[in-house]
Every structure is written in C-alpha cells, then in structure tokens.
Amino acid sequence: MAIELKLSEEEVTQFYIGFLKLKRLYKFGILYEEHKGRIQRLLKLCSEAEKEGISIGQLVKLSELANENNPVGLSQLEKQRQWHLSDLRGMETERREIEKEKYRLKAESENYENVLFLLKSEISTLEDQL
C-alpha cells in the first residue's frame, strides 16, 4: 500500500501511529518499538501469568523483588519460598497421616465386620438351640 501511494517510511509510520491512537493502542506502538526483539517472550510471560491467575501488578511486584540489585527483595522472596516449602512439607506430612488413619480405620472396619459375622453365627447357633 505504501509503495502504491508512494509514501515514505516516515509517513507510513505517522499513519500507523495515528491508527494506534484512534484504536487507543498508542502505548502498544511505543512498547513494540522499545521491545521489538522481545515481544514473543513478553506475550509468553503474559500468557503464562494469566494461566496461573497472576495479575500484571503481581508480576511487576515480583520483578521488583527479584531484582538482583534489591537484596531486601531477594531476602523476602527467599523467606516466602522457604515458607511455601515448609507449608508443602506440612501438607505432605498431613497427607501421610491421613493415609495412615485411613488404613487404620479400614483395618478397624474389617475387624468389626469379623466380630459382626461371629456374633451373627453365635445368634444363629443359639436360635437353633432354642
């Protein structure tokens, strides 16, 4: 289209910027110009964050905390990671305890079924004697 209209790159760029303004996507144009080579990674990051239910604000906060020039932030991230790990360990311990209790209750149930069977047999024998 630009060739047919004999427009320069500068004119085409201005039209494109005008188009983005009309669509209220002007910041997208700026973002694209600043991050041309990283757009795919940015889109993947946004997509993965959306899948995980992470907001853009949370991503920004996380990147601020994870900044290697921010030792306090890194320390906070490590504390949170340790907290989550201990929480996961606690959940695993709890899961094992539940499995043990489930096994114990199953064994107890089988024992009561055996007792019930014996009692029914005894009742049947006593009824026969009567």
Question: Overview of this structure, please?
Answer:
The structure is a single chain. With 130 residues, this protein is an all-alpha fold. It has a domain at 1-35. Helices cover 82% and strands 0% of the residues. It is built from five helices and no strands. The chain has helices at residues 9-22, 26-34, 39-52, 56-66, 71-129. Helix 1 crosses helix 2 and helix 4 packs across helix 5. It is elongated, with a radius of gyration of 34 Å. The relative contact order is 0.03. The mean pLDDT is 83.
User: Can you give the mean pLDDT?
Assistant: 83
* Fraction of residues in β-strands: under 5%
Cα separation of the termini: 107 Å
- Number of contiguous helices: 5
Give me the count of strands. Answer: 0
Pairing-aware structural class of the strands and helices? Answer: mainly alpha
Low-confidence regions: none
* CA gyration radius, whole angstroms: 34 Å
What is the helix fraction of residues, given as a range?
over 70%
H/E element order: HHHHH
Shape, principal axes of CA atoms: elongated
Largest sheet data = none
Key features of this structure:
130 residues, mainly alpha, 0% strand
Q: What is the secondary structure topology, with strand pairs?
A:
Elements: H1 9-22, H2 26-34, H3 39-52, H4 56-66, H5 71-129
Helix pairs in contact: 1-2, 4-5
Summarize the structure.
The chain is an all-alpha fold. It has helices at residues 9-22, 26-34, 39-52, 56-66, 71-129.
